[in-house]
Design goal:
Helix content: over 70%
Shape: elongated
Distance between the termini: 44 Å
Largest sheet: none
Number of strands: 0
Number of helices: 4
Structural class: mainly alpha
Number of domains: 1
Length: 97
């Protein structure tokens, strides 16, 4: 069946919020940065994980269950279309420093 329109809006809202103000998450990524790799990829992975984790937790709390296969497919479909904006926001923030 997939995500409801309310779930989809909530996920998109989390992505927009993360893209609008990446300063805190990029700062956290800087503190956690491993000795290899680059900060852009690490920050993007960290923020992506935070968005997915927050959404799944909110979903579980509201529905009393985990996402099913169709809902998970919708989740990743939304992420594939919306996350490039988040990545650009992170890269822009890092370029300003």
């Amino acid at each position: 069946m997939g995500l409801t329109s309310a779930d989809r809006k909530e996920l998109e809202s989390l992505i927009k919020a993360a893209a609008r103000d990446p300063e805190i998450s990029v700062g956290l990524a800087r503190k956690m940065m491993p000795s290899q790799g680059n900060i852009e990829d690490f920050a993007y992975g960290l923020v992506s994980g935070m968005v997915i984790g927050n959404f799944t937790l909110l979903f579980q709390n509201r529905n009393g269950r985990e996402l099913d296969r169709d809902e998970m497919a919708d989740l990743f479909s939304v992420l594939m279309t919306r996350m490039p904006k988040l990545r650009m926001s992170i890269m822009k923030h890092l370029a300003l420093r």
